[in-house]
Specification:
With 392 residues, the protein is of the alpha+beta class. Helix content is 22%, strand content 29%. Strands 4, 5, 7, 8, 9, 10, 11, 12, 13 and 14 form a 10-stranded antiparallel beta sheet that branches. The N terminus is likely disordered.
Amino acid sequence: MNVKLTSLFLLLVAACSSKDHTGTPGATDDGGGRPAEDAGGGLADSETDASDASGSSGIRWIGRIDTTDPTAARFAWSGTGILATVSGTTISAKLRTSGASDAVFFQPVIDGMPGTRFSVPNGEMTVTLGSNLTDGDHKVELYRETEGRYGISAFAGFTEGTMKGSPPSSGRRIEFVGDSITAGYGNLGSEQHPNYGPDPTGGCHFSTATESAYMTYGAMAARTLGAEASLIALSGWGIYRDNGNNTANVMPAVYANLLGTQAMPAWSFQPEPQAVVINLGTNDFAMGDPGEAQFEGALTSFIATVRGKYPNALILCTTGPLLFGAGLTSAIAYIQAVVAAAHAAGDMNVQYLDFGQQNIMLGTGCDYHPNTTEHQAMADKLVAALRAALGW
């Protein structure tokens, strides 16, 4: 390790040792010297058209949605949302948030143009998604920006605008399973790291205001490929353990959940995506090497779970961009060993992708996390890999 990285490591250890990481997500060491994240019936799929009196007839649901109550479809995972064709010069919708400890943010998109993000605190709000629009039909998208640990959202229908159905689907779907990187932790924030050190102004820490699912590598790649993205991600969690060494806070434990960290109802795992991208490991190495047998065993078991749900999907295991040094070296070796074992067992549809390391000297998001520029670089690599593997 060179002098600059050694100095960075010592600064981070000092900062992390004085901070209480329980509760609100923050930063800890990722095992490579950089901060990681804190731990902390009626089921719709993306082809389901709800038909009810709430103004949601014809909607295409994106991601994991509970439509048990058709007048208030519920969802919680990052990037979950709706897509519909709506006619009118003003388009408004009714949304609800329950059980959130922080404001839940949403990203509206009208005719392919992202609008101003807005938040919905606990309770019910009617929100204008677009105004002063041309008279006629508009493609309306609305995505939850906030990760699944922050309460449950409900879409209670359009209150202005006339539903006309939904645009046709390409049929392409990608599922992502990850941690804060996949959730978009701090990607709207900005930090500078001269000489690889901490931001001299103090930087920024986690808030739902700086977390954007829409601007993550997963959502970016999906848009480029004309696919729908489902993001199953929680900050601080891993494949074998979280960044506080808790082996209960792992993504396999919540993988079957429809509504974030809420155990029931369970997800139907329909329809099957063409690809599942697993980006886990950063938090497993937050307190040092978790152990070859432990990490590889957990990843192997999870891949078996995914394969059981999706017999035909490409499973893409990835590393980067926060790990480096010994942590990165071990993570790559362990993941590649698991992929090689899958090939030896006859499953050639399990593959590996290295996202590379971010250059923090170019600036980062909050707590050293990737900013939107880094997310775009990751998306470009993922797009190339998926096009090669799937012919997209």
